[in-house]
Amino acid sequence: MNHVQSTVPPLATVLIEPVVRATLAEDLGRAGDITSDAIIPATTQSELYLVARQAGVLAGLDLARLAFMLVDPSIDFESLLQDGARLEPGSRIARIAGPARALLTAERTALNFLCHLSGIASITATIADRIAPLGCKVTCTRKTTPMLRHLEKYAVRVGGGSNHRFGLDDAILIKDNHIAIAGSIQTAVERARAAIGHLVKIEVEVDTLEQLDQALALGVDVILLDNMDIPTLKEAVRRINGRAISEASGGITPDTAAAIAATGVNRLAIGWITHSAPILDIGLDALNPA
């Protein structure tokens, strides 16, 4: 097991605390944890461990820590690993000690964040590892869980991927419907250039080689090659020839990623890594320290 710390900067507390608070409030409802309050004496203290039950990449530990600390600041949360660590079944991630009621109250919120984000980081790492020798990188999309985009995109970075635009306001992406309504790629690009500042990049989605040639002639920054088969992708990369960043998209999965990356594209834009990544199984267990 590789006990590494991610080189990705952690998300600031001001960014993660609101969503953790809201999630705890959703779970606590109007009366709090009536099960733990009824069964566990208020004075009971416990020591539990976050433990990986399958191999993967850890992400979201700060959110798990915050979930416990917001329920009871007296909880002692000791991180044994850091985000970016490669996990094996049985890897101990953190030791958590304190009032038993509070530990059980925070458990589900902490695990929901940790399992979900670690799942995204893990599948991203699987793809990134496969395509890295081909000089290609995996990037995410806007196909994210509502209100969790900043967290999911963080998990993509932890897994070795890169982020596409965060929202509608940080880059121009001219898609098929924009082109259809504007009337042509040229009209859409010209209108975009007239409206944006000099630091905003322009990306155009193309479905055919004819559209690709039009976009190249306009000197756009990035070209999204959408739903092209392997031979067409290879020809598209040949025509681009470094004049723009090339990005393949459309139903890419971990099983198809390497073959698509082998065409020479610079990026694989994969919505799957955020909207369909399975969770990584992590539990909160009572263990005796080794």
From TrEMBL:
Assigned EC number: 2.4.2.19
Domain annotation Quinolinate phosphoribosyl transferase C-terminal: ranges: 120-285
Keyword Transferase appears in the UniProt entry: yes
Top-rank lineage group of the source organism: Bacteria
This protein's UniProt keywords: Glycosyltransferase, Pyridine nucleotide biosynthesis, Transferase
Entry keyword Phosphoprotein: no
Annotated pathway: Cofactor biosynthesis; NAD(+) biosynthesis; nicotinate D-ribonucleotide from quinolinate: step 1/1
Domain Quinolinate phosphoribosyl transferase N-terminal: 33-118
Family: Belongs to the NadC/ModD family.
NCBIfam families attached to this UniProt entry: nadC
UniProt function note: Involved in the catabolism of quinolinic acid (QA).
PANTHER family: NICOTINATE-NUCLEOTIDE PYROPHOSPHORYLASE [CARBOXYLATING]
Designated name of the protein: nicotinate-nucleotide diphosphorylase (carboxylating)
Name of the coding gene: nadC
